[in-house]
Amino acid sequence: MTNFVLQAKGLSRHYPGDGVPVRAVDTVDMAVETGEAVSVMGPSGCGKSTLLHLLGGLERPTSGEVWLGGQRVDRLSETGWARLRRRSVGFVFQAFHLVDELSAVENVELPALLIGASRKAARGRALGLLERLGVAGRAGHLPDRLSGGERQRVALARALVNEPLLVLADEPTGNLDSGATAQILRLFAGVHEAGQTLLLVTHDPRVAATADRLLTMRDGSIVEDVRLEGGLSRQALLAQVAGWEP
Amino acid sequence: MSMIVRLAWRNVRRRPAQAALLLLMLCLSTTLVSLGLAINETGREPWNRLHNSVNGFHVQAYAAYHTREQLELPRLPQPDPANAASADDQLAELAAQPGVVAVGGPWPILFAEGRVGGVALPIWVRVLDSQPAAVGRPLVISGRWLDDGDGVVVLEDGLASLLNVAPGDEVTLAGQRLRVRGSAMTTSIRRYPGEFPATIWTNRATAAHLRASGAVPLGAALELRLARPEDAAAFVAARAPTYPDTGSLMAWERARSRANGMEPYTLVLGIIATLLAGLTVATAAVLVTGRMAAQSRQIGALKAIGVTPRQALAVVLVEYLAVATVAGAIGIISGTLLSPLIGRESPILYGAPAAPPITWPRAVTAFAVAMAVVVVGSVHPALRGVRQSTVRALASGARPPRRASRAARFAAIAGIPLPVVLGLRSAMRRPGRTLANAIGLALGVAMVIVGLGASKATRDFLASQAMDEEEAVVRAANAMLIDQAVAILFIGAGLLVALAAVNAMIVAIFAARDAARNHAILRAVGATPRQTVISFVVAQLGAGLLGCAVGIPLGVLLYNSTVTGSAKDLPTMALPALTYVVVGLAVPLLYLMAIIVPAARLARRPAAGALTYE
Amino acid sequence: MREAMLALLAKEPAHGYELRQRLTRALGPIGEVLNPGQIYITLSRLEKAGLVRSDQVAQAAAPDKKVYEVTPQGREQVASWLLDVSWPKVAPAEFHLKLVAAAVTGLADPIALIDAQRRDLLRRLRDVQRLAQAAPSDDDAVLILEGTALRLQADVRWLEACERRWTTRRPQ
Fold this sequence. Notes:
Chain A has helices spanning 48-55, 78-88, 104-114, 119-132, 148-160, 178-193, 205-208, 234-244; strands at residues 4-15, 22-33, 37-41, 63-68, 71-72, 89-92, 166-170, 197-201, 213-218, 221-227. By secondary structure, chain A is α/β, with parallel strands linked by helices. By secondary structure, chain C is mainly alpha-helical.
């Protein structure tokens, strides 16, 4: 019995449509182990974003169970989820969702302050993370002065500041150009290598490919669950890459 | 938590105009409340000074010689000697109580018909000695005090100044011609015309003559000083249950608060303050709702990283509560400082009104009013904004509409032009804001109606025939007081109308902001700017008409229940129908003018700007 | 092209002209690029390789025509071609023919082929990205790897589009 960071059992989310209920997420079973990076892909409307919201407590499931760090969490109140999210779940959104009125470092230290860290400790951790992600020089700026890539890095720092059990990312590169995308993916890979458990929802194959495991969703259900590891040897791969160029 | 305060402060800095507006309106409300409470006490200092200089009473008692039935007869008979004796005994018993340090009186009081300064009026004659009393020596204002001669009187100073009687003049009492030695003032009786009927002092010799020529003995008055002034209330409380109700027993504090005479002002200020508070609530609701829409993404982001709904609510409320606290402080100070300016014209104060010291009850009331207004106005929209699902808050643009109302569909079928239908639909999608707008207007209109009604009523009253000469004189004296009160009423109405206009403009601005996107879409598919503006104006106008429709009857109701309740002579609302019609037409017109600027801006905004994804 | 022709023949033997028609139908407007000469050359090469056999068929009112038929060897070739996930340079036309061939011959499920290819590409993408991330970011190798990754990304996206189209074609 491996230690699952995240588990969903029979998870469903229905919306009452005009007459026929819409099954955004339909009886999903899945689990993520510690240190795993899992990506969820699927066409638009397949329910992957809703699944992410359910796993992070941003929406309440219609039925089913969610277990986080060995604790059942789907029945928690708004307040209970808020407290849990502080400590255990970091979110990275497509639209960044930083607080516009706070500077970069103030945004990052916010979750640390929420769990009761001293101002000094929170500030220290925040600056450390910004440094690690390469945006320490922008610490005092407000979000509207930052580029998209910088904002997402600040958002990632904010998600990591309390060393959460799990980082949930929803189309993290959706608003970024390809240069910023490459940078962010590099950072995600680095974070994963350091042992952070990740769940990425995306329609971008490049983002999906940073994960070890790929779940494909269609019409609210998971239709495929494959490991992406174990490709060609390094030599063979390099040869192929080289051979592809005219 | 300091983070909450920090965020609230940043939010204020970003939108200072809204906080400033709310502060202004709250300050006006708290100032009026504080003013209304303070003017009741502006008479304190002058009264205290007089009380000290007359060696004033701690306990004042009066015993009547007549029975209740006798007092109700049209012509007062001579009292029954047995009743008179028992009344005198009562007073003697009081004087003999433990704790009594000094006694003034008992002094007999007679009732006589008199003629003073050419005016016929009833008089209460108090019989004092030429020697200064142990307690309660009236302060001589003009001329000098009574001597032991025959046929001499001293007038109460209010009476003397109102009827222009100087020392050396003659007055008639019970048919006897008497000479005026001077005029005096005391805290034992309220200044005429505060105290009815007027008082004249005389000595025992003259009183005997008056009794012989028909003056009726009414009773006797007694004044006591105790070991400590603070004991007066307890002294009175112990004896009040057994004291006959034809007389009176009063402690000095009570006498002081009765002597103020600021009731008309308190009433008027009370009305204005209440309506203004109501208007501020409506404005606060509109501001907070608008703020929630603009801030929902911030709230969503906060909730996503683990801020509880309660903490998110705190960020919003801290801002408004801080404004309320500042407004409370400003209100209590300015209201107190302004209080001497009101009521200077009152003829019944004992001297120039002075700003009373700030007391706990008044300060707490001012703060409480500010807090209450803010809480009532902001809690509901703030809670709604915070309770919204995090996902929706993060994705927010305009609030998604509820299902289209049936009435709107009706209108469409009935052949009403499209812009009007769209306007009505959008008004009904935001019932809260429409309601707040209507309430704001209703209150302004109500105030105008009250002002108009009061003005007409007082003019009618003053123009009507006085019942007798005395009343004519008193009316003239009070004319200034009443004029000032009505002036305050109109100022208040003007203020309310101005703020209601501001309220209407804010609602229109927010509505225009919300509507911009929809209107851009409409224009992109071919509606002309004029059509979109019409639909916008119709939407807002609905609230305007509603406000008028409610405001007029509200004003009438308010007037009938408050103004006529306290001023016994004023009739119920008697404005001609034309006035209502004029108000009913003028208000929507003024309202249109108020919202014309936001509406025009809406039309001029290029469609592309509103359509691009933010 | 070779394998595609083989696969189309595997369903049913045909002569040159018919085969050309089948190909054109499968490729749509792109098929007009094919010239008949190329088809016959390829057919004879296939015959020489033993993957195809030709028969003369007598016709009533026309000269004899040569009908080509797939050999067992040829059939094997088709099967392994269908299952081969190695990614050639010009993908769309060739892969599409593969899917058509699979559908027509019933030898494989087109959706399954798409899924398998997509998985493979994602694995490659993953490996390429890891290589790129292991190197310092200003290295030239990273640029080359970036280019490879972007192409793989594009190809995966195209495969997803194929899947959407082929899912609607699938009988329910």
